[in-house]
Amino acid sequence: MKLLVVEDERKTASFLRRGLEENGFVVDIAEDGEDGLHYALNNDYDLVILDAMLPRRDGFSVMSELRRAGKSTLALFLTARDEVPDRVRGLDLGADAYLVKPFAFSELLAQIRSLLRRGSNRQPDVIRVADLEIDFTQHRAIRAGKRLDLRPKEFQLLGLLARRAGDVLSRAVIAEQVWNMSFDSDTNIVDVQIRRLRAKMDIPFEQKLIQTVRGIGYVLRQEEG
């Protein structure tokens, strides 16, 4: 799932990106309100995390413009503005939640997951394909009763394939969703990570779930017959 963080304090933005990516999210960063509004209007995000105090355009203005433009993207204010009128204003403008700095990352993560579960883009917390089980809330993957030791990007890659099980995903789609990058035909990052993932969750088991569709990409599905 793809998140936008609009935060001008670079240390905080870096902390958020690292923590969210480790929990399986793709993250874009905007460092001021104008860029944040542009990103949010021109891209499809599952959730926008928004500071109230931003250069060029404050977060309240960003929130107002988003809703005025008809964007229903889930939004969470994450700000040091802790007065009740600020909270009321943020929620009245259309934000779905309001969390005050300083904050516990675990609480932010719980808020994000709660919003995504309630949102129109709700995804199941647990996905099963054959003998593979992926629990997104526990950040855990199990194959035939054995827990898989996956790195964050490997888990994110497997999660993408599982959420789209049965769909053939091109290398370009995988690169965008997992690494937030445009796919370059000279780059083999997708193929390398697929090989590493297969070594952990396919090769040790009789049934192979990750299949290559030559010239297109990859698909996670149970072999028939």
Task: Give a structural overview.
The chain is of the alpha/beta class. 40% of the residues lie in helices and 21% in strands. The chain is built from eight helices and twelve strands. The protein has helices spanning 10-22, 33-42, 59-68, 84-92, 105-118, 152-163, 171-179, 189-201; strands spanning 2-6, 26-30, 47-50, 74-79, 97-100, 126-129, 132-135, 140-143, 146-147, 169-170, 210-213, 217-220. The strands form three sheets. Strands 2-1-3-4-5 form a five-stranded parallel sheet, with helices on both faces. Strand 7 (132-135) and strand 8 (140-143) form a beta hairpin. It starts with a strand and ends in a 5-residue tail after the last strand. 30% of the residues are buried. The model has no long low-confidence stretch (mean pLDDT 89).
Topology record:
Elements: E1 2-6, H1 10-22, E2 26-30, H2 33-42, E3 47-50, H3 59-68, E4 74-79, H4 84-92, E5 97-100, H5 105-118, E6 126-129, E7 132-135, E8 140-143, E9 146-147, H6 152-163, E10 169-170, H7 171-179, H8 189-201, E11 210-213, E12 217-220
Parallel strand pairs: 1-2, 1-3, 3-4, 4-5
Antiparallel strand pairs: 6-7, 7-8, 8-9, 10-12, 11-12
Helix pairs in contact: 2-3, 6-7, 6-8
